[in-house]
Each structure stands twice: as C-alpha cells, then as structure tokens.
Predict the structure.
Amino acid sequence: MEKNTREKFQQLCEITHSTEKMWNNARGFAPDSVADKLDVAMLHWLTELTDALKIWIDIGLDMTDGELILARTNLGAIVEFWLRFFYCVYYEDYIKDPILDHQGKMREPNKETFEELKKFSNGRLWHDNATRDYKFVDEIQHRRNSIHAFEFKNIGIPKDFLKDIEDLLYFVKELTISLPSIQARKTQCLAPM
C-alpha cells in the first residue's frame, strides 16, 4: 500500500480515537438530551471499526471480491456511524427540524437509516447532491449495500477502496471541524464557582 494511504489512515485513527475520548462522557458539558444519546452510543465501536480498516489496507491491491465486499461494509458502517454521531451531538438543533415519519412524528437520528440520514444532510452538511461529500457518502452507501447482493453490484476495485480511505479522512475532518468545541465547555464546567 502507498505510504500516503497509511499516513491518511493513521490521521483518521487519531481523529477517531480523540473524538471518542472527548465525547465518551458528555454529561456535564453537553445538554442532557445530547448526553442521553451519547451515553448509549457505542463510540468505541466507531474506533474499533476504524482500526479494523487496517485489515483491508494491509491486504491492499490483492483483495478478493469477497474481501472487498467486507471492506466496503466496514467503511459504510463507519460513515453511517459518523452521520448518526453528528446529529446526536447536534440533537438540540436536530429536534427543531428533524426527520419526520409518515405521520409527522420525529424520528430519532440515532435510529435512522443510512439513506434517510444521507437525504436529511442535503442543505445541512452539504449544499446538494452534487457536492463532494454527498457523492462520497452516496457511493459508500451503495457499495456497502453490496453485502446484500445476489446479483452484480459495482463494488469498485481495491485501488478505489484505498482512495476511499483518503476521502473518509477528508469527510471526518469536515465533520469534526463542525463539532462544538468541548474543551472550553469542560473547563467552564470544572472551573470553581
């Protein structure tokens, strides 16, 4: 595998580990509604799924189709998790303009499908379905769904998957830059009165 992909993967792991560590115990600096969502979120799974990408990176260009399908499933689970995490962190904003069911009732972001989160993100995380982030998420979702395939689905080639790791780093950086700063909030919460 190219040195550049390994470096991007290492950066991705560092950001993911740091995010898990910071948000793992949000109670006290985040609103209770956000803390409630994150208390039940398996943030360590995000970290472990990200670390597991190394399996596929190490196999590299020699991946079989079966390995590539599993690699795509791994990558898709990570992207879906980041979207759920993002809307749970911004839960107070989410409830003002949520995803609604057919009866007009609010659907919880942590229980939402990948498809609905992707559609909901239009105009929120990206401007429209022509943007880089939408195209990335859409392709990841469709290739991830190849795990359910009986007939042919385009899973790309191992080289495409390795490029997607680099694109995932860009996507995660965009999301984490948009997260509220919690260091200042932690300090304020811990400061003596």
Summary: The two ends are 53 Å apart (CA to CA). The chain has nine helices and two strands. Residues 187-193 have pLDDT under 50 and may be disordered.
